[in-house]
Design a protein that fits this description.
The structure holds 2 protein chains of 2 kinds.
Chain A lengths: L5 H4 L20 H28 L7 E7 L7 H4 L4 H4 L3 H5 L22 H4 L5 E8 L2 E5 L9 H7 L10 H4 L28 H7 L7 E8 L12 E7 L11 E7 L8 H35 L1
Antiparallel strand pairs in A: 1-4, 1-6, 2-3, 2-5
Helix pairs in contact in A: 2-10
Chain B lengths: L1 H11 L5 H20 L33 H5 L8 H12 L10 E4 L3 H6 L9 H32 L14 H5 L2 H16 L5 H20 L13 E2 L13 E5 H5 E12 L2 E4 L26 H13 L4 E2 L14 E5 L4 E5 L2 H12 L3 E6 L2 E5 L5 E10 L7 E7 L5 E7 L1 H4 L5 H16 L3 E10 L1 H16 L4 H12 L4 E12 L3 H10 L3 E5 L4 H10 L8 E5 L1 H5 L5 H27 L12 E6 H8 L5 H15 L3 E5 L3 H12 L7 E6 L2 H9 L5 H25 L5 H14 L5 H6 L15 H26 L2 H6 L3 H27 L4 E3 L4 H39 L12 H11 L1 H10 L5 H6 L15 H25 L14 H23 L5 H23 L13 H6 L2 H24 L15 H10 L1
Parallel strand pairs in B: 3-16, 3-20, 16-19, 17-18, 18-19
Antiparallel strand pairs in B: 1-20, 1-21, 2-21, 4-5, 4-15, 6-8, 7-8, 9-10, 10-11, 11-12, 12-13, 13-14, 14-15
The chains are: A alpha+beta, B alpha+beta.
Main location (chain B): membrane
Keywords (chain B): ATP-binding, Magnesium, Membrane, Metal-binding, Nucleotide-binding, Translocase, Transmembrane, Transmembrane helix
Pfam family, one (chain B): Cation_ATPase
């Protein structure tokens, strides 16, 4: 009866088994929480002021100016739309080029069952309005040079998207046996005359392929970073020439063009600054309330003791 | 190469039959019902069928090779059929009167034997935590379904706007256009369900199980429970009910062996009215010391003849054996008590320690029992002569008769009957004038808490003896009603005896029994002592244990109080019940109202103790079946519930069960704990004998296992895990209903059992066969049906492939768990065994408390973290045209519960000590703070849910506002939807983990490791996941998303802001929820401030 091997039945006397591991036992008391709130509040107000000022400064057109186009009521994040692409094809995979993924349907195969390159709804609906900006000095319009370099993610341009291997030094041959997307006026290998900006690695294409998070969005169109314009856009009269190709009225959408500078925190967005300010002040107020309550409470304890 | 390897692993992982575990569990659980439903096991005598206490071992029954059985009670007393053995485990318990010592092991558990008998309704045994989880689960299921419904409805509302349904840039395929609208709606609904299904914390079940399993080790590891005497620590037989230990409201305890050590010592005896007080026999002349008892005649002794007769009776009237005996008598379950004697080098073994104590007592007075020789009992008298008596009959002890007798023949040919038993059963059978001389002694001894026995004898004439002998033989051979007939004969024989004396045996209290009981009291538990002893004995024990205090007002409801006055018992009972009810229930409530919260112990707050005895109890419970009966019962119950301690004495074993049942069934079904003495092996035996008809079960299980290994082979070829629903039901049905050989032939032809012996159907041979079959069919299936099976519609769903896989498992698990969990808890046989009663204090106050807090926090936390996980995904549907676009990447969806947030909560649930162990032990009233499932009620649940809601809203709309201008990088580039999701997810993981960190009061290195490790792992994983173009993935959604996100200062700022915004309200509420006023500081022990203050007070 119960006379087992003592070695087996006797519990180990270790800190773990006895639940006596050395432990740090932090206590969230009002004495800690109060200063914490004050510190957080002050820090946040500080950050908030910084952010707010930075964000306000964006309006002044100084430094390189960025040109965005915006669309509203446009659901790039619609699931069916978002999956309608073949990343293998865009990676330059020849097999996928010739037989795009089923996700691309109904933009998978074109006429005569020829594969579409690039396939899918996203590529098919590539934004194709073009803009030219002119600066008017003494009734003379000077075209502002728009730089389409570096408007897409570095990794997209260099890794994630690749043209299929050229055949006989020609990109056109590489796309032999495919057709252009239905809505495109010209095939993918004629998107640009610059060979480093053509085919699947066309920067406009890359920007469009990174689908937007929300139905009202903006995408980077060009950077104004060349020549005299790289410092800033001087005050004056400008004229924007728009080649209107992209239909938006059918879905009650709107288009817009935004010129903006950017700072270390990106484009203009006052939300972050305001949020920091509001929350910082809130925690200061909270700290005050707690101070009052705590003081009262402390008095009560002292009286009771 | 590595990525290829990984991708193939993923592709083929379905070959591991994960769902098999679920199905096997289900099969076991449901299958075990067939055992309890089998009417062949129904015994009309006890009105009970087979009882299945565990479903885990069904299939083991088909593998039994050795059968261990006890003779007494298993093979002899009951029917000789072997199958009876199965229910005998039950019957055994049933008869087991707890007055016997089977071992030093005090075992207890919410579902101990008493309750097994009492709680017929299985659902009663479900742990309160499980009940809460199921309730919460239903709420979350409703949330899930309503979310899916809302989204589906709004989707069609949204689509009715022109330009929304099919804009030019996103046209439908021909197939989509052709699909029936209602079918589409239905698929939409299902898709939303899949999208949101993560709100159901499936992994919680795994975590809870893990926590319980690992957590239970802490009990068996606890060295405080180690008893050097028996070289054993606590034994945990179940891990399911750990947290229930923190919820106990009623403690039922047996007196003998539980409160007391059951280590009997002979204290004194009284022969013919003269008291003999044994002090130290060896120094005295003849082993006698005469004490001046209040009633005994000073310095006088009983006649020598009487004295010797008494001592001979003590020596003869027992079932004690000398030496290590293999056969044990009486009601002994497994082991008896051995008492070795140094001088004589012999050892007495008996089922009851009383007997040993008496025999040893007689030895001290010079009469020594030497053992049996054939049918002769040998004993040595004072003159060192060996006397021999022929043992003719033993009239066994049983708890109903409360006495035993032997019939012996002396050398001179005289036939004598010696009888010993409780005073109540002996006094009516002897001459009245003899009783008067003894009674006072007996009563005085009882008052002192000694166990008393009376000894009587009778000399039988030869005719008388022959008559008795014949009757006894006749009765023993009877096939029907053997027991009743035996009892009748016993009754006839044991009449007209002469009382010679009484003995008093002391049963010492368990170590620290009083402290333990006091602690239980302080913890707000109500202690019920159920005993078969005399009221006086029991009462004095209760005082000694501090169950009754001096200030306790005793309410007595016994035969004695009932018989005061001349009125009939029923009337008196009614009157007393009403009176007590008024005092204990109504007045007390009035007191409470008057004094409010500031009531103190001295001012009118009375503690009540309630004493009831068996006879009265049966009067209450089994009163004539009119309306008053139920009224008595409810009155009785109400009185009991308002008393801090209840003593039930003179209880028959069945009544003990009745009492427990009654309390369990009372309002709110409180959690009860029964303590009793049990031998470990005995329990094991019970456990193993819980089944019948074994082989059928076995075959079922085994075919199931095979089938599952075989099935996924071709499933894996096509990765459609949602087939699981269609293929699982047939095998479940098969596993439950299949009888490949009919039951009758199985029963008749026992050699069939050999066919499955030694796990025959689960060996490598059959396994190989099934595997080959699977391979073959897999090949045929794959290459033959490949083209046909390729369904673009299916592939289309592959977009949410990660979801589908998980989602279907979820649904399967979900449906099963809801049903499964409930029952599985119920059928578990559970036991905790601790060596000594004093350990109960730590078990309940420390382990129980900690487990409860841990598991309650775990459950709430899981619901909370899944809510704030999935809420942003729900909100996102409003901004993506209700298109089921997932906010998070599939990898994040799957990993969230499995990797990123699971380890910290596991560590928390194992290691957390929100109050240190010492304080818990010292301050028993802390236990009240968690009473009645306080942490898993709707209030806290609502709080956590609101917190989850708030945080989900903050996460989503915070990032949403930021994405008003998605140009977040300092180079003007814009971020897309996956960055949006990743920011939300990052905030989520950090907030949820830090929330847990804030709740952790006990930071060991393990906590540090897992909390900071999880966060580090999340960052590492995100880099890793986004750092590679994964070859097997159709879409490279997250490629460099995380790294790019980190390059944006705005993203950093929003992450920090949202984490702080989400966490601070919880801190504020925590601080403000601090107790106001000094009297509540201990009850609200879980809030941060009170903890500190509590420490300060220490």
């Amino acid at each position: 009866m119960g006379k087992e091997d003592p070695k087996v039945s006797k519990p180990d006397n270790t800190a773990f088994t006895q639940q006596r591991l050395p432990a740090w036992q932090p206590i969230l008391s009002a004495g800690i929480v109060l200063p914490l709130f004050v510190v957080i509040g002050l820090t946040f107000i500080g950050i908030g002021i910084g952010l707010f000022i930075t964000s306000s400064n964006v309006q002044e057109i100084e430094g390189p100016v960025f040109m965005y186009y915006g669309l509203t009521n446009y659901y790039q994040n619609y699931r069916k739309y978002g999956i309608s692409r073949d990343d293998d094809q865009l990676f330059g995979n020849i097999d996928s080029l010739k037989s795009p993924a089923n996700f691309c349907s109904p933009y998978q195969m074109g006429a005569k069952q020829m594969p579409i390159a690039p396939c899918g709804a996203i590529a098919n609906s590539l934004f194709n309005d073009t803009f030219r900006l002119f600066y008017k000095v003494n009734e003379v319009y000077t075209e502002v040079l728009l730089d389409d370099n570096g408007i897409s993610w570095w990794t997209d341009y260099n890794v994630k998207f690749r043209n299929p291997p050229e055949i006989n030094g020609s990109l056109k041959n590489a796309f032999e046996g495919t057709v252009k997307p239905l809505n495109w006026p010209k095939p993918v290998y004629e998107l640009s005359t610059n060979p480093n900006n053509n085919g699947f690695i066309n920067q406009d294409f890359l920007v469009w392929m990174r689908i937007a998070a929300l139905p009202n969005f903006r995408k980077l169109y060009r950077r104004i970073s060349e020549g005299n314009w790289s410092r800033s856009l001087p005050a004056g009269n400008y004229s924007l020439e728009i080649t209107y190709n992209y239909p938006v009225l059918s879905f009650q959408g709107k288009k817009k063009v935004v010129f903006s500078t950017v700072t270390w925190m990106g484009g203009k967005n006052s939300f972050l600054g305001i949020a920091y300010l509001v929350f910082g002040s809130l925690s200061i107020v909270m700290a005050l309330i707690m101070l009052i309550v705590y003081a009262k409470y402390q008095v009560q304890i002292d009286r009771d003791m | 190469m590595f990525t290829d390897f990984l991708s193939f692993m993923v592709l083929f992982n379905f070959i591991i039959p994960v769902s098999m575990y679920v199905t096997v569990e289900m099969q076991k659980f449901l299958g075990s019902f067939f055992i309890s439903w089998d009417k062949d096991f129904f015994d009309p005598e006890i009105q009970e069928g087979a009882l299945v206490n565990t479903s885990d071992l069904n299939e083991e029954l088909g593998q039994v090779e050795y059968v261990f059985t006890d003779k007494t009670g298993t093979l002899t007393q009951n029917n000789m059929e072997f199958i009876e053995c199965c229910i005998d485990g039950y019957q055994y318990n049933y008869r087991d009167s707890r007055t016997e010592l089977d071992g030093f092991c005090v075992s207890d558990g919410p579902v101990s034997k008493l309750q097994e008998k009492a709680g017929k309704g299985k659902s009663q045994k479900r742990s309160a935590v499980e009940k809460s989880i199921n309730a919460f689960l239903i709420v979350y299921l409703c949330i899930l379904i309503s979310k899916a419904l809302v989204c589906t409805t709004l989707k069609y509302v949204w689509q009715s706007h022109p330009g929304h349904d099919e804009p030019w840039y996103n046209q439908k395929t021909q197939k989509e256009k052709d699909t029936n609208k209602f079918l589409k709606m239905f698929t939409d609904f299902l898709s939303f369900m899949v999208l949101f299904n993560f709100i159901i914390p499936v992994s919680m079940y795994v975590t809870v199980e893990m926590q319980k399993f690992l957590g239970s080790f802490f009990i068996s590891w606890d060295k405080d429970f180690f008893d050097p005497e028996i070289q054993e620590g606590a034994l945990v037989n179940t891990s399911d009910l750990n947290e229930e230990l923190g919820q106990v409201e009623y403690v039922f305890t047996d007196k003998t062996g539980t409160l007391t050590q059951n280590n009997m010592e002979f204290i004194e005896c009284c022969i013919d009215g003269y008291q003999y007080n044994y002090r130290d026999s060896r120094t005295e002349l003849d082993g006698f010391c005469v004490s001046d008892g209040p009633v005994s005649k000073l310095q006088e002794k009983a006649g020598k003849e009487k004295e010797e007769l008494f001592l001979r009776a003590l020596c003869l009237c027992h079932t004690v054996q000398v030496k290590e005996g293999t056969e044990l008598h009486g009601m002994d379950e497994v082991d008896g008590i051995g008492a070795s004697d140094d001088a004589e080098q012999c050892c007495y073994i008996a089922s009851s320690p009383d007997e040993v104590a008496l025999v040893k007592g007689a030895k001290k007075y010079g009469f020594m029992f030497l053992g049996m020789e054939g049918k002769h009992m040998k004993m040595q008298n004072r003159n060192k002569d060996v006397e021999q008596y022929e043992l003719l009959h033993v009239l066994d002890f049983d708890p109903v008769r409360r006495r035993m007798s032997v019939i012996v023949k002396t050398k001179s040919g005289e036939t004598l009957l010696f009888c010993k038993g409780a005073d109540s059963s002996v006094f009516p059978r002897v001459q009245a004038e003899e009783v008067e001389r003894i009674r006072m002694h007996v009563e005085r001894n009882a008052m002192e808490g000694y166990r008393t026995l009376c000894v009587a004898y009778k000399s039988l004439s030869s005719e008388e003896f022959e008559q008795t002998d014949a009757a006894l033989q006749d009765a023993r051979l009877a096939l029907q009603d053997r027991e009743e007939r035996l009892a009748q004969v016993y009754d006839q024989v044991e009449a007209g005896m002469h009382l010679i004396g009484a003995t008093a045996v002391e049963d010492r209290l368990q170590e620290e029994a009083a402290e333990t009981m006091e602690a239980l009291h302080g913890a707000g538990m109500k202690v019920w002592v159920l005993t078969g002893d005399k009221m006086e004995t029991a009462k004095s024990t209760c005082y000694a244990c501090r169950l009754f205090l001096k200030s306790t007002e005793l309410l007595e409801l016994t035969v004695r109080t009932l018989e005061e006055g001349d009125r009939p018992r029923e009337e008196k009972l009614h009157e007393l019940l009403l009176d007590y009810h008024k005092r204990a229930v109504q007045d007390r409530h009035k007191d409470k109202d008057k004094e409010g919260v500031t009531r103190s112990w001295s001012s009118g707050f009375r503690e009540f103790g309630f004493i009831v005895d068996g006879a009265t109890l049966s009067l209450v419970l089994n009163a004539s079946p009119d309306a008053s009966a139920s009224r008595y019962k409810s009155l009785f119950l109400q009185i009991c519930q308002n008393c801090t301690a209840v003593l039930c004495c003179r209880m028959a074993p069945l009544q003990k069960a009745q009492i427990v049942k009654m309390v369990k069934n009372s309002k709110g079904s409180p959690i009860t704990l029964s303590i009793g003495v049990k031998g470990k092996e005995g329990r094991q035996a019970v456990r193993n004998s819980d089944y019948a008809i074994p082989k059928l079960k076995h075959l079922k299980k085994l075919l199931l296992v095979q089938y599952f290994f075989y099935k996924p082979l071709y499933d894996a070829a096509y990765l459609t895990m949602y087939n699981i629903c269609f293929t699982s039901m047939p095998i479940v049905a098969y596993s439950l209903l299949e009888q490949h050989i009919c039951i009758e032939s199985l029963l008749e032809n026992s050699s069939l059992y050999r066919g499955i012996a030694k796990n025959a159907m689960l060996r490598w041979g059959p396994f190989l066969y099934w595997t080959l079959l699977g391979l073959f069919e897999g090949l045929v299936f794959f290459f033959g049906v490949y083209q046909l099976f390729w369904n673009p519609a299916l592939a289309d769903n592959g977009q949410v492939f990660g979801n589908w896989t998980f989602g279907t498992i979820v649904f399967t698990v979900l449906v099963f768990t809801v049903t499964l969990k409930e029952g599985r808890q119920a059928v578990r046989n559970s036991d905790y065994a601790i060596p000594k009663l004093k350990h109960l204090k730590k078990l309940l106050l420390v382990h129980g408390h900690l487990y409860y807090v841990r598991i309650a926090h775990l459950v709430q936390y899981f619901f909370y973290k899944n809510l704030c996980f999935i809420l942003p995904q729900f909100l996102y549907q409003f901004f993506c045209g209700f298109s089921q676009q997932p906010l998070y990447d599939a990898a994040y969806l799957t990993m969230y519960n499995i990797c990123f947030t699971s380890m910290p909560i596991v560590a928390y649930s194992l290691l957390e000590q929100h109050i240190c162990i010492e304080s818990l032990l010292e301050n028993a009233s802390l236990y009240r703070g968690i009473a009645k499932n306080a942490m898993l009620r709707w209030g806290p649940f609502l709080y956590w849910t609101l917190l989850g809601l708030f945080e989900g809203l903050v996460f989503f709309f915070g990032v949403y506002q930021l994405f008003w201008n998605p140009a977040l990088a300092d180079n003007g580039q814009v971020f897309g939807n996956w960055t949006f999701g990743t920011i939300v997810f990052t905030v989520l993981v950090f907030t949820v983990t830090l929330k847990l960190a804030m709740d952790t009061r006990h930071w060991t290195w393990v906590n540090h490791f897992v909390i900071w490790g999880s966060l580090a792992f999340y960052i590492f994983f995100s880099f890793f996941w986004g750092g590679i173009i994964w070859p097997f993935m159709q879409q490279q959604r997250l490629y460099f998303v995380f790294a790019n996100m980190l390059s944006s200062v705005s993203a950093w700022l929003i992450v920090i802001l949202l984490i702080v915004v989400s966490l601070l309200p919880d801190i504020v509420i925590g601080v403000f929820r601090q107790p106001q006023g000094p009297d509540r500081q201990q009850s609200a022990s879980v809030t941060p401030l009170s903890y500190k203050r509590f420490k300060e007070l220490d």
